[in-house]
Design goal:
The complex is a heterodimer of chains A (about 300) and B (about 525). In chain A, about 65% of the residues lie in helices and about 10% in strands. By secondary structure, chain A is an alpha+beta fold. Chain B has three domains: about 210 residues, Multidrug efflux transporter AcrB transmembrane fold, CATH 1.20.1640; about 80 residues, Alpha-Beta Plaits, CATH 3.30.70; about 140 residues, Gyrase A, domain 2 (2-Layer Sandwich). In chain B, about 55% of the residues lie in helices and about 20% in strands. In chain B, the strands form five sheets. Chain B has a six-stranded mixed sheet with strand order 12-11-17-16-10-13. In chain B, strands 3, 4, 5, 6 and 7 form a five-stranded antiparallel sheet that branches. A four-stranded antiparallel sheet of chain B has the order 8-9-2-19. In chain B, helix 1 crosses helix 12, helix 4 crosses helix 6 and helix 14 runs antiparallel to helix 15. The longest helix of chain B is centred in the C-terminal third of the chain and has 35 residues. Classes of the chains: A alpha+beta (about 300), B alpha+beta (about 525). At the A-B interface, helix 4, strand 4, helix 5, helix 7 and helix 8 of A face helix 7, strand 19, helix 11, helix 13 and helix 14 of B.
Chain lengths: ~300, ~525
């Protein structure tokens, strides 16, 4: 069976300016949301705070939970429903000072209102502000180190311009995913950093396969001009790109739908990241090489000759 | 069969058998013979899957330095008196300095000599003149401060280990982390609040004499007599259970500490059925207790735990047996835990809970169920997609995918890695990406077939050309995974592990195993057409 005909020839590189515009618009949208919300919406892992996941025997609502905790003087309390059922909630408090007793106090207050045995404290996460700061620093550092490592490897295996193309594509993917998180009001916590790194890995995987073909074809079809070689390579690998992205999307979708609330956001990040990563290896990473080539030969007025070749 | 084919078949079968054997304990548990279970551990589940507690404690090392200085102040006070040096006072300033205030130069010089002889780790600082007095300043050398801090963390780790051992958790982890942090993992802990109480308590037991002539109300108002300290006595009403606190002024100086304990046990007071903790001193402690009680008959002695007075009984007679009791309307649980912390020893400095992640067992089980379900569903979807798209070759890819899962689990078991919820996500992701290597190979073979090559030649060329691409593409993902492993903690590390293991395994299965299956297939029959 074939989804993509083997002799397909879509003019991807010809639409590179349009693609650039589209990417720019989506990234700016995300950045605007980030600016309006005053930076990324960090979870307690990165800013510190306490999170308690509670399951009740009977359905209840956030307002009633908030009322039961009102006497505790906890500062800002955020109560969110968790998962699909109306009996499971996340309670989020900025306070960490009372950390030693906080979950016990919350459980006590809730038991007093809902009755003993009707409240199950399923999860408690308390992160002190200092640890949060450390985790945030480590998270950002790990993204930077991963990018540096990849830059070195690709420059060694290919050329510097390929490495730069790949890194631009990566930043494109991470920025858009970050924007999607901000737009959908999702929180960024520790597992999301893991998802970002997985996205980086996946997006690169895709990019390198196209690059590899460009390198191979460049030797064979040098006369056709660089832009045409890039386009040919994208078309030749298109079938693989669609199939692999397809299967990966299938499993991530399974994770998103069936994986449960704890990794819901993680699966969301992967979902967005894979879609954007696939797009970027075709419309960002490869055209960057052409822009780079145009820029270098621009001084010699060869652009027109190459485009028509 | 050619030689190369035989060797490769042997290698793959060998790996498969090793993998299956190593997975035995994970799949069949205790039904297996002893040697088997001893050689291979079952796969460890992370705290987020089996439930449990992950704590990061910070040792307040500055407090340890302060208490070291306090000890020096006490000791040097005695020394200066012994040598008849006339001094106004000696105390610790907030800037981690010891200040000896004397009346004249001569006494100052004497003090300098005594301090230098007895405390080589102290550095004399420049003088600060204050009125008619001369102040001699000393501070701990930087090396000594570092050593005190280091010792405090190590001692705290040791004490916490003792407490955890007595708490009764199977396979706890205690680890020193960077700086003054200590990581504690308690799998399957049932009462998290009790664990926190037990681990977070400093358990500094002190005996101090009560200042009978001081008025606690004056002390609250700020009129604390010199050498006195305002503490609160904890009282529990036996009927209502309400806790009240009443103020008490005690002498600043500690006459005896819990360091000199040899044992602590829970006993029940037969009169009121109240549990209390009976403590026995070691020989040094017993001797000192004997002296103190002998010298203070008729006075009250406060038993202070972490700056809270538990009781302040009147000393009726000299106590020479070396035993005492800590009572204070405890519940049986409280008394048991108090005995545990007293036996395990006090922490050299207070600890703060910097991070606490506790997952209840019910959520852990849900996570396992949901994680496994998504792996299964994802797997089935991918298997169908490959079968429809590549037919016979899809079957090869699916066989390889199955093997891949077996290898990943086997490597987790062999390396003693921990499976976490993000780790399961990593496996799901690997299932999706593992087929990529096969897709690359198959697409190449299709291209070669279109160029008119024979199945054998197309296969050969397809594998060869795709191999480098596959390696390049996977190494970059591996770099990301390794960085994650280096920086990640807990569950996230689990993701890095399964992702790395998955990449290595899918490289092996795609490049070696699926090649082998095709070669075996082609070596047995004359194939004109490849189903791909």
């Amino acid at each position: 069976m074939q989804i993509i005909k083997h002799d397909i020839n879509i003019d991807f590189t010809g639409k590179r300016k349009l693609a650039l515009l589209l990417s720019a618009v989506v990234i700016l949208l995300g950045l605007a949301s980030l600016v309006i919300n005053g930076g990324p919406n960090y979870g307690i892992d990165f800013v510190g705070g306490t999170l308690v996941q509670v399951k009740f025997v009977e359905d209840t609502d956030a307002a009633k939970i908030k009322d039961s905790l009102a006497s505790m003087d906890l500062g800002t309390v955020v109560v969110q429903s968790f998962g699909d059922d109306a009996n499971e909630f996340l309670i989020r408090v900025q306070e960490t000072e009372k950390g030693k007793e906080l979950s016990g106090m919350i459980s006590g207050s809730l038991n007093a209102v809902y009755g003993d045995g009707n409240v199950d404290i399923r999860r408690v996460e308390m992160v002190g502000p200092q640890v949060g700061k450390d985790l945030r620093q480590k998270g950002i550092l790990s993204l930077v180190y991963a990018m540096i490592g990849i830059l070195i490897y690709i420059s060694w295996r290919f050329e510097l311009r390929f490495a730069i193309g790949a890194i631009v594509a990566l930043m494109h993917d991470v920025l858009i995913t970050l924007g999607a998180f901000s737009l959908s009001g999702r929180e960024i916590d520790l597992p999301i950093i893991a998802a970002f790194l997985a996205i980086i890995g996946y997006s690169l995987n895709d990019t390198i396969i196209v690059y590899d073909r460009i390198r191979e074809n460049y030797g064979k079809h040098q006369k056709k001009g660089f832009s045409a070689v890039v386009n040919l390579s994208i078309n030749e690998t298109l079938s693989r790109t669609i199939l692999t992205s397809g299967t990966t999307l299938l499993v991530v979708l399974a994770l998103f739908i069936f994986g449960g609330g704890v990794i819901h956001n993680f699966a969301f990040a992967m979902l967005v990241g894979i879609l954007v990563g696939t797009y970027s290896s075709i419309f960002v990473a490869s055209p960057i090489l052409i822009f780079w080539d145009d820029y270098r030969s621009g001084g010699q007025k060869k652009v027109a000759a190459e485009e028509t070749a | 069969m050619s030689n190369s084919l035989k060797i490769r078949t042997g290698l793959v079968l060998g790996c498969l058998i090793l993998a299956l054997v190593s997975l035995g304990p994970t799949l069949f548990g205790s039904d297996l013979p002893d040697w088997w279970r001893k050689t291979f551990d079952p796969i460890h589940l992370g705290l987020d899957l089996q439930g449990g507690m992950h704590l990061v404690l910070g040792v307040d090392v500055d407090k340890a330095v302060e208490s070291r200085l306090d000890t020096i102040v006490d000791q040097s006070e005695d020394l200066l008196r012994e040598k008849d040096v006339i001094f106004k006072r000696i105390d610790r300033s907030s800037g981690e300095r010891i200040i000896v205030t004397v009346y004249d130069e001569e006494a100052g010089e004497q003090a300098d000599t005594i301090m230098a002889e007895n405390f080589p780790n102290l550095e004399a600082m420049t003088l600060t003149a204050e009125g008619a007095y001369i102040q001699k300043n000393y501070r701990l050398s930087d090396n000594e401060i570092e050593a005190v801090r280091e010792y405090a963390v190590r001692q705290a780790l040791e004490t916490l280990r003792n407490r955890v051992d007595q708490f009764g958790v199977s396979e706890p982890t205690l680890q020193r982390q960077e700086g003054n942090r200590i990581l504690i993992q308690l799998p399957g802990v049932k009462d998290p609040q009790r664990a926190i109480d037990l681990l977070g308590k400093t358990a500094r037991l002190e005996f101090k004499m009560v200042m009978e002539d001081a008025n606690p109300q004056d002390a609250i108002a700020g009129n604390l007599p010199a050498g006195g300290q305002l503490l609160y006595e904890r009282r529990v009403d036996p009927r209502s259970g309400a806790v009240s606190e009443s103020p008490l002024v005690v002498e600043d100086k500690t006459v005896l500490t819990g360091d000199l304990l040899s044992n602590a046990q829970v006993r029940i007071d037969t009169r009121f059925n109240d549990p209390y903790v009976a403590i026995d001193f070691n020989s040094v402690g017993a001797k000192r207790f004997d002296q103190i009680t002998g010298a203070n008959v008729g006075k009250r002695m406060a038993i202070v735990l972490d700056d809270t007075v538990y009781s302040a009984p009147v000393i009726r007679e000299r106590i020479s047996g070396g035993s005492a009791q800590v009572s204070g309307s405890f519940t049986e649980q409280e008394a048991t835990d108090l005995a545990i912390v007293l036996r395990a020893g006090s922490l050299p400095a207070p600890v703060d809970i910097l991070e606490n992640r506790t997952v209840g067992p019910s959520l852990g089980q849900d996570s396992i169920d949901q994680g496994m379900r998504s792996v299964m569903i994802g797997f089935v979807l991918v298997v169908f997609a490959m079968l429809i798209y590549y037919k016979f070759s899809g079957l090869v890819a699916n066989t390889v995918l199955m093997l891949n899962l077996v290898f990943i689990m086997a490597m987790l078991s062999i390396f003693g890695a921990t499976l976490t919820l993000p780790g399961i996500a990593g496996i799901v992701l690997t299932v999706g990406m593992a087929v990529d290597a096969n897709v690359l190979i198959f697409e190449r073979i299709r291209e070669e077939l279109r160029l008119g090559r024979t199945p054998r030649a197309a296969l050969e060329a397809g594998f060869e050309k795709a191999k480098l691409t596959i390696i390049d593409a996977n190494v970059t993902t591996l770099i990301a995974a390794l960085v994650l492993f280096q920086f990640g903690t807990g569950p996230v590390k689990g993701f890095a592990v399964t992702l790395s293991v998955g990449i290595i395994s899918s490289l092996f299965t795609a490049v070696v195993v699926s090649r082998l299956i095709f070669d075996l297939y082609l070596s047995r029959s004359k194939v004109d057409r490849l189903s791909i």
